[in-house]
Design brief:
The complex is a heterodimer. Chain A is mainly beta. Chain A is built from 4 helices and 30 strands. The radius of gyration of chain A is 27 Å and the shape is elongated. The chains are: A mainly beta, B alpha/beta.
């Protein structure tokens, strides 16, 4: 199975790969020179014109990247304004007669964070065909990271506890269970964990954690990336046992986690258990609303008419025998059919 | 003996939303077009499943002689459809300040139906490099730049525009300058010819805020972005068209509100058929978690949905799985409170004027388990001052009807007449007065019924009077000191008509805006009292007060 992954390139980025190139997660796909703090460059005074008149002499458009010593403005009579170093031209102040330029910093690498084959290199993006399984979540946070998958809980309903995160988890993507507490997230970041995949998370804890991440970035304390992907729901919600088994089978494989995009690629893995809406009798199902969120079971039969939930909402519903032994009537809209797993590669 | 051939005419009205697809079957019954059946299901289940559901329902309801021909009748049925745009127009906003120009620009954009995917301001604490990195990777259909008052040439405004010029690739979306008018030419010059347009500044000075011109321009721009789809089939266009036609044919001022999963629509139709509409791209129930302080506000409004953290989890679940159904009472309470909050946000920048009829649409309202819950969402969210009829679009037919050609919409509305919307009743909403003092004394005269004694409602109270669907009543309203129902008062007694519905006549003296106690226990008690006053089963003279 393969999926196409796109890496967006900022303006001025220099691609370092070509079509057909096989890339690794840590490989640099392109470089970018980020603009530093802007500064004003006198223009009108050098051209000996008024601030307003000098506008007509500008040779560059805002947004242009200028090489060192490139012409920013010229009056056509020999007076020329050059930029002293490579910079991004941001704009001209016609009151002051100055140009705002941002010198370009040293090149910074742009990583793809994925393993695969480059299929397209464009001025604004690089496409990579990724061989492996894709797991998508319902929420997440953080940038792209990669690392080995490692199961950090024994059961899909277990919470990922801070005490379970040790130095062995450094640079790995941990698979938690039904919840990762704020304490666990903080410890994971401190231990250099690359990312966490979890069944559920309390929205408040995730937001609090994001806020601390933001503050750390602002003061320059946040350097390595850290990402979280939520698979099943908000609150304490376990991972579907079949999906958890699939993670167990792929423990130790290289993976890439995209928190903000809620995606996880696991390389050289067979497809993960798929989901589809509208389950039928006999299907294995996963519920995604409380009080059964995250529970899996078998859809026994659909009820002949609408059935009212405890909240009073009448909906097409089905009788579900959950794997924990409980039986309940659940609205069909709150169930996904879980397709059978086709075994895993050795 | 051969049976006479029985035939029927059917039409299928389909409203395919982002989360739920709704369909109604209308058929000619004894010479009249009637709503025969309707159904709703998650859109992801597909059209064939929806048709199967409708077919099954029709088999149970139709003349048995037609049962074998239901599939053929469906195949020949006229299909009238509207749908939510495949994706909303995406906009990046770059402004000088978060609180002034950025806030105004964002609100104008959201009220015009744009999905603001990024807001970058020069006071957001990010470095220039970070701002550029964000803007260079964002994928949008248009850019909105704002900053500077009209009496100056703010260099910061130019910085904001230059930031967009640096991040945007030529040809990558229209640019709207909504900042200092003095900088308009310079900003336009930053971009390729015809790429940038200048619009009246929404913050012309530090005291004034004038969002309307920017909102109108952005609405027009959004229509161009969505031009790939047939415009009248878009729910955001179709629903307001139906409201306009309904206002013209009924001779009533009509306010239609549709709180969907993703978007919310507000349309006010006037007697001449003209309609003013707003679309909030993230105004649906799933957008509640993204509203400023959303979870806390919903928790306070609901009262019985749990604390802020619990409500945040519920709202995130609704965002992630908008087609799912609340199973627990607290989840339903949070969903309905979120709808009330989003409805109130629809009126934030432009409070609604008095209207004769309010129609609620969208699953949260139209599929509320009890009509009283739908009534409460509309009353609490909109606070319609004065005497107003309320109804809901139970079968989601307004959108599809609004996608018809101009000359057919009114005809479609007239044909369905009684089945078009389900009346909830009438509300009398007052403003002002002192807490605990009389807000209004209402005498209800119902033809053929003994008159009730005048009902006195105190400020902060909600009172329900039975008035069944089809019943009419004449109201005599005496207002307390300092209390108003919006219209100028020429006499101490106001006479108004009321029509009944599944809830009845609601005398609502909770004020506009509604005042809620600050202390948590008191607030929960007050909210529970209001909820119970509306939801209790009514006896023959079962007035309820809270």
């Amino acid at each position: 199975m393969s999926v196409i992954h796109r890496v967006r390139l900022p303006i001025g980025a220099t691609p370092l790969v070509a079509v057909g190139h096989r890339v690794e997660p840590a490989e640099v796909l392109a470089t970018r020179r980020p603009p530093l703090t802007g500064r004003n460059l006198p223009v009108a005074s050098i051209l000996r014109r008024s601030a307003a008149d000098a506008v007509e002499c500008l040779a560059a458009r805002p947004g242009s990247i200028l090489d060192a010593d490139a012409t920013l403005a010229t009056d056509g009579r020999g007076r020329t304004v050059h930029v002293p170093e490579a910079c991004l031209y941001l704009g001209y102040d016609s009151n002051e007669g100055t140009a705002l330029v941002a010198p370009l910093g040293p090149p910074e690498p742009i990583l793809g964070h994925v393993r695969g084959e480059v299929t397209t290199v464009d001025h604004d993006e690089i496409e990579i065909r990724v061989s492996g399984a894709l797991v998508t979540g319902i929420g997440g946070s953080g940038a792209a990271v990669h690392g080995e998958l490692r199961l950090a809980v024994h059961d899909p309903g277990d919470e990922l506890r801070a005490t379970a995160i040790d130095t062995g988890a450094t640079r790995r993507i941990l698979v938690g269970g039904s919840r990762a507490s704020a304490e666990a997230l903080t410890r994971a970041r401190a231990m250099g964990v690359a990312g966490i995949v979890v069944g559920g998370v309390l929205d408040k804890e995730l937001r609090d954690f994001e806020a601390t991440q933001r503050r750390r970035r602002e003061v320059g304390a946040e350097r390595g990336g850290f990402a979280i992907v939520v698979l099943e729901g908000y609150g304490k919600v376990g991972i579907d046992p079949a999906l958890f088994d699939w993670f167990r089978a792929n423990d130790g494989r290289m993976a890439s986690l995209f928190g903000d995009e809620t995606r996880l690629y696991v390389y050289d893995a067979d497809p993960s258990p798929a989901r589809r809406p509208l389950p039928r009798p006999g299907d294995r199902v996963v519920a995604h609303r409380r009080p059964h969120a995250g529970l899996a079971g078998e859809l026994v039969r659909e009820l002949p008419g609408p059935h009212a939930t405890a909240a009073g909402v009448a909906a097409r519903s089905a009788l579900v025998r959950f794997e924990d032994g409980r039986t309940a009537i659940v609205p069909l809209a709150n169930l996904d059919a879980a397709e059978p797993v086709r075994g895993t590669r050795g | 003996v051969t049976q006479p051939l029985l035939d029927a005419e059917l039409a299928l009205l389909v409203d395919a939303g982002s989360a739920w697809a709704k369909a109604a079957v209308i058929g000619r019954v004894r010479g009249r077009w009637r709503l025969v059946t309707h159904a709703a299901q998650p859109t992801a289940w597909g059209a064939s499943e929806l048709r199967a559901t409708l077919t099954a329902r029709l088999r149970g309801a139709a003349d048995p002689r037609l049962a074998a021909r239901i599939d053929d009748l469906f195949a020949g049925a006229n299909r009238i459809e509207c749908h939510t745009a495949k994706r909303p127009g995406r906009l990046a906003v770059v402004a000088v300040s978060r609180e002034v120009s950025g806030s105004a620009a964002r609100r104008a954009a959201e009220a015009a139906g744009w999905d603001v995917v990024e807001l970058v301001t020069l006071d957001d604490g990010r470095s220039l490099s970070d701002r550029l990195a964000i803007l260079q990777t964002v994928q949008v259909d248009a850019w909105l730049v704002a900053g500077g008052f009209d009496d100056g040439r703010s260099p910061r405004g130019m910085d904001a525009a230059a930031l967009v010029a640096s991040a945007r690739r030529p040809g990558a979306g229209a640019v709207v300058w909504a900042g200092s008018v003095a900088l308009a030419d310079e900003v336009r010059a930053l971009f390729e010819p015809d790429a940038a347009t200048a619009v009246a500044n929404p913050r012309p000075d530090h005291r004034r805020e004038e969002l309307a011109p920017l909102r109108t321009h952005l609405q027009e721009l959004l229509r161009h972005v969505a031009a790939a789809e047939r415009e009248t089939n878009l729910s955001t266009v179709a629903m307001p068209r139906a409201i306009g036609a309904l206002a013209r044919t009924s001779g009533l001022r009509v306010l239609g509100v549709d709180v969907g999963a993703r978007t919310a629509i507000r349309a006010t139709g006037d007697l001449d058929g003209s309609v003013v509409s707003r679309v909030h791209a993230r105004g649906g129930v799933a957008g509640a978690i993204g509203a400023p302080g959303g979870a806390g506000r919903v928790a306070r409004l609901a009262g019985d949905a749990g604390d802020e953290a619990a409500v945040a989890d519920i709202l995130q679940t609704i965002r992630a799985r908008p087609a799912s159904v609340p199973q627990l009472p607290e989840e339903l309470s949070a969903t309905q409170a979120a709808a009330r909050m989003q409805l109130a946000a629809l009126l934030d920048d432009d409070p609604a004027e008095a209207v004769d009829l309010v129609i609620g649409a969208g699953r949260t309202i139209a599929a509320a388990p009890r009509p009283a819950q739908a009534m409460r969402i509309l009353l609490d969210g909109l606070r319609p001052l004065g005497v107003t009829q309320l109804a809901m679009d139970v079968a989601s037919v307004l959108g599809p009807l609004g996608s018809l050609d101009d000359d057919e919409i009114g005809e479609g509305i007239s044909l369905l007449s009684d089945d078009l919307v389900a009346p909830l009743g009438t509300a009398v909403v007052t403003r002002g007065g002192e807490a605990g003092r009389m807000a209004m004394r209402v005498t209800v005269h119902r033809p053929g019924w003994p008159a009730f004694a005048p009902i006195e409602v105190r400020v902060g109270q909600l009172h329900l009077v039975p008035l069944a669907r089809g019943q009419r009543a004449e109201l005599t309203i005496e207002l307390g000191s300092g209390v108003s129902i919006g219209a100028p008062r020429r006499s101490p007694r106001i006479h108004a008509g009321a029509t009944g519905g599944s809830v009845g006549l609601v005398l609502d003296a909770r004020g506009v805006p509604m005042g809620l106690p600050k202390r948590g226990d008191d607030r929960r008690a007050v909210l529970a009292g209001w909820r119970d006053a509306l939801q209790r089963e009514l006896g023959p003279l079962g007035e309820r007060v809270a």
